[in-house]
Amino acid sequence: MITKRTKSNFFLFIVITIAVIFYFYNISQNKGSIKIEKQQSNEIKNNNLIEKNITKFTNVEYKTSDDAGREYITKGKEAYLNKDQPNLIRLENVQSFTKLKDGSTLNVQANKANYYKKSKNIKYYNNVRILNKDGKITADVANFLADKNLIRLEKNVIYTDNKNTVKGDIAELNTVNNDLKIFMFKKNDKVYGKRN
Length: 196
Known about the structure:
Layout: H1 4-46, E1 54-65, E2 71-82, E3 85-99, E4 105-116, E5 122-131, E6 136-145, E7 150-160, E8 164-174, E9 180-183, E10 192-195
Antiparallel strand pairs: 1-2, 2-3, 3-4, 4-5, 5-6, 6-7, 7-8, 8-9, 8-10
């Protein structure tokens, strides 16, 4: 006959065996998870997908206003803040807009932009497009100067409307009254224009 002590020892042996099997099973599962996480983090480091001290936000909006209270709104699909450059916000898939004096909308679009928090200036680059009621302006780079209510476009500046195409080196667009001036770098060079 089996004694009580033998029964309790047998029961204790079974419980310990199940606990050991359960423990080693979980350890082996966690090792696999750790291995996958290490592989993913190495891939991210190798592809430079994460930069040190960078914080990413999505679907951001920044508002500034001039002395007259007119708002200049900038939206980005992604925004990156760097702890080492607290004044700078890098934006991707950017769209800015404001109301002109006549009530129409001025719309600025670019693939990338730098927003400077202190000055509220914005540098747009990579496929810059400005759309308003009069036409469309494209350029490689555009700088919004908040204190002057001015957008200065540079490099491959092209203005088009229903009737004309005008090319120049530099353009300045007033964000209050929609006045546009187009210049060349050299005084002897002439702005190129043609009727469509």
